[in-house]
Amino acid sequence: MVDQNSSSSWLKCLNNMSSMVMRNDHGGVTVEVGGEEGYAVRNARKKELVEVPWKGAPTMAHLFEQSCEQFNHNPFLGTRKLLQKEFVQSSDGRRFEKVHLGDYEWKTYGEVFACVCNFGSGIIKLGHSVDSRVAIFSDTRAEWLIALQGCFRQNVTVVTIYATLGEDALVHSLNETEVSTLICESKLLKKLNAIRSRLVSIQNVIYLEDDNSDEDAFSGSLSNWTIASFSEVEKLGKENPVEPNLPSKNAIAVIMYTSGSTGLPKGVMITHGNMVATTAAVMTVIPNLGSKDVYMAYLPLAHVFEMAAESVMLTAGCAIGYSSILTLTDSSSKIKKGTRGDANVLKPTLLAAVPAIIDRIRDGVVKKVEDRGGLVKNLFHFAYQRRLTAVKGSWLGAWGLEKLVWETIVFKKIRAALGGKLRYMLCGGAPLSKDSQNFINICMGVTIGQAYGLTETFAGATFSEWYDHKVGRVGPPLPCSYIKLVSWEEGGYLTSDKPMPRGEIVVGGFSVTAGYFKNQEKTDEVFKVDEHGMRWFYTGDIGQCHPDGCLEIIDRKKDIVKLQHGEYVSLGKVEAALSSCDYVDNIMVYADPFYNYCVALVVACNHSLEKWAQQAGIEYKDFPDMCNKQETVTEVLRSISKVAKATKLVKSEIPAKIKLLPDPWTPESGLVTNALKIKREQLKAKFKDDLQNLYV
C-alpha cells in the first residue's frame, strides 16, 4: 500500500522542481551595455557581474592559500602508483606499453600548500628572477598544479606549452616569451636537447621525476643549463624559505599558447583577475559543489578548459585524482589486462570532457552492445528509445519509476565504466552533437552541462543550467560575463532575425583577457574597450539567443565558404552533422569556391567498416587496403549522404566525393589540437594532392 503522505511529499517535490525550472531568475535576460550596438544578455541570477568568490581573494595566489587553510586536512591531489610496466607486440610488429597501477595515493590540502610554498621558494633560490618567466612543458599531473601555484605565490608569470607541441612552435613559444626557467617531464628532455641550440633565454631546467621513464633520460646532454629535479627544488625551498610575493589582480598569471588551428600559436595573456572571475562564476552554477566531490583530471592543463576546471575544484575543496586518456577506463589502451582503469579506482563524481572524448565513450558502449548481440542488444536499444522519448517529452519525463527501472536493469553496468558515482559531466572545447549529449544523459545517468568559452576569455562565457535537458545549447552567460550578438551582414546573420536574434558572439566582462603577447595588431583587431572601460572579445563564432537567454553556437565566420553558384557552405556545421555517421572517426570538409560542390577527408572507423566488410564479403589485405577499395568508398559516401539528409543538410553541403584515410588524426601528428579539434590549414597542406584529385 502506498503511503499517501510519502506520495504527497514526492509530488510536492516534483512540483517544486518543475516550478523552479519555470522561474525567471535562471537563464539569461537582456541588458543595456556599452560598446558596439547589438543584442546583449546577462545571467539572470546576478544583476552585477561576479568578480571574486569571496572578499579577500583577488588573485589565484590568495584564493589558493585561503582554500588550503579552509580544507586543510581534506584529500586534494591523488596519483596512482606505478607497480609494473611491460611491452606487448602486435601481429604487425608494433610495440605497445601496458601498465599495472595501484591505488591512488593522496596529499591533503595542507600538504600540497607546503609543497607549493617550498617549490616557490626553491625556484627563487635556484636563481630564477621574478622578472622573467617560467614555462611548464608537461602532461597533466599533480606536480604541474603544484608548480603553477608555486610560481603564482612568487608573482612569477607561467607560460603553458602543450606536451605534444612541435619543435618549431615550441621554440617560438619559449623564445618569444624569453623563458629563463623551464619545467618539463624527464621524458621530454631529449626533445628539448634536440632544439637547445635554437633556445636563446633558457638558464634553468627543472625535470619532473617519472617512474615510467628511463633513468638516464636526462643525463649528460644539457650541461650548459642548470639542471635540477622537481624534488630537489622543493627541498632547496624548504631549507631556504622565501617570503611570498603575492601578485595583484591585474598581474599576468599565465601566458597560454593556443594549440592554433592556423600558423604559429598565439600567447594569450591571462590575468589573475580573469582566472578568479571565471572560477567565482562557475562556483554559482554547478549544483552542490563541495568537498565531498571527486574530480578526475586527465585533459591537458596547458588547455584553458582544464586549468579553469581545476581552479574551480580547488576553490570548492574537491579532491582531484590524476589520470590520462590512455589509462582512463579498464579497456584503455595502456591498461594491462586485469588492471582496473583510473575511473574504476577513483570513482569520480565530476568529470570534464571534450566532445571527441564523449564520442569515444559513446562509440565504445555501442560497440560492446553490438558485439553482445541478441537479447542484450535488443534490450539496450528498447530501453534507450524509451528513455529518449521520455526526456524529449518533458523535463519531468527525465524522472520517475520507469527511469529507475531501466537504469537498474540496463544502464547501471554502463555507468560502472566511469566508476559508477558520476553525478555531473561538463563538456566544452567544441560543439557537442545532440546524439552524444542525449546518450550521456541517458546511459550515464548524469547531467551533462555544456559550456562555451575561449582561451581569450579564460573559458568564461556561458554555462548551461544543471536542469536544462535541451540539446545543442551552451547555456546563458556566466555571472562574470555579458554575451552580445553583433550583426554580421555579409554572412546574413542579424540581431533582427526571427524567431531568434543572430550574430557574431562578443564576450564582455571580468573574464576577458589582456590580449595577445607581443601582438598588438591582432589584439586591437579582436579586443575592444567600450566607453565604460569594459573589455570585449570578438570571438568569430556565430550564435543565436533563445528566448530564455541561452546561447546556441550555429556557425563560425572563418568556416564559411561561398561556392561557384553563390551558395554558402558552413564547413564546421557540416562536419558536426556528419561526425555522427557510424563509419566516420573524424572528418574535414573542404570547399573550393571555383566549384559548386564540396568534398571531404574522412578518417575511417576501423570497427564499423571491418564489420561491414565481413558482412558484404569484401576481401582485403589490411585496413589501408580496405579504405582504398571503391566498394568501401561508395558505402561510406552512401552512409554520409543518409546522415546528411537526416540532419537536413542541403545538396551543396553534402560532400560529393570523399577520400578515406586509415590512420587517425592525433595531437602528436599536428593535425588536431589537444582538444581534438581539427587543424584545417595543416590538413589542407598535408592532403593537398588528395583534395585536388577529388575535384578532378
TrEMBL record:
Q: Where are the transmembrane segments?
A: none
Entry's PROSITE patterns? Answer: AMP_BINDING
Question: Per the record, GO CC terms?
Answer: endoplasmic reticulum; membrane
Q: State one Pfam family annotation.
A: AMP-binding
SUPFAM superfamilies registered for this protein in UniProt:
Acetyl-CoA synthetase-like
Which superkingdom? Eukaryota
Report the residue ranges that make up the AMP-dependent synthetase/ligase domain in this protein. 97-517
Gene Ontology MF terms: long-chain fatty acid-CoA ligase activity
In its UniProt entry, what is this protein called? AMP-dependent synthetase/ligase domain-containing protein
Could you read off the lineage of the organism from its UniProt record?
Answer: Eukaryota, Viridiplantae, Streptophyta, Embryophyta, Tracheophyta
